[in-house]
């Protein structure tokens, strides 16, 4: 179990691949997309 092992996290890092042991980190949606920049606040 080490750098040469395909199934371990260390082995995935060494090979530069992804899998169930080392999933890709998904980008979170930016704040600008959540809040409309052009829309003005509604008056009460």
List keywords for this structure.
single chain; 44 residues; mainly alpha; 2 helices; 25% helix
Could you walk me through the main structural features you see in this protein, from its secondary elements to its overall organization?
This is 30S ribosomal protein THX. Residues 1-13 have a biased composition (Basic residues). Residues 1-44 are annotated as: Disordered. InterPro entries: Ribosomal_bTHX (IPR031414), Ribosomal_bTHX/bTHXc/bTHXm (IPR030826). Helix content is 25%, strand content 0%. It is mainly α and 44 residues long. The termini are far apart.
Q: Tally the helices: what do you get?
A: 2
Output the radius of gyration: 21 Å
- Broad structural category: mainly alpha
Q: Span from first to last CA?
A: 64 Å
Number of DSSP strands? 0
| Broad shape | rod-shaped
What string, H for helix and E for strand, traces the elements in order? HH
* Helix content class: 25-40%
Strand fraction:
under 5%
Biggest sheet, open or closed, and with what strands and sense?
Answer: none
List the helices and strands and how they pair.
Layout: H1 9-15, H2 31-34
Summarize the structure.
This protein is mostly helical. Helix content is 25%, strand content 0%.
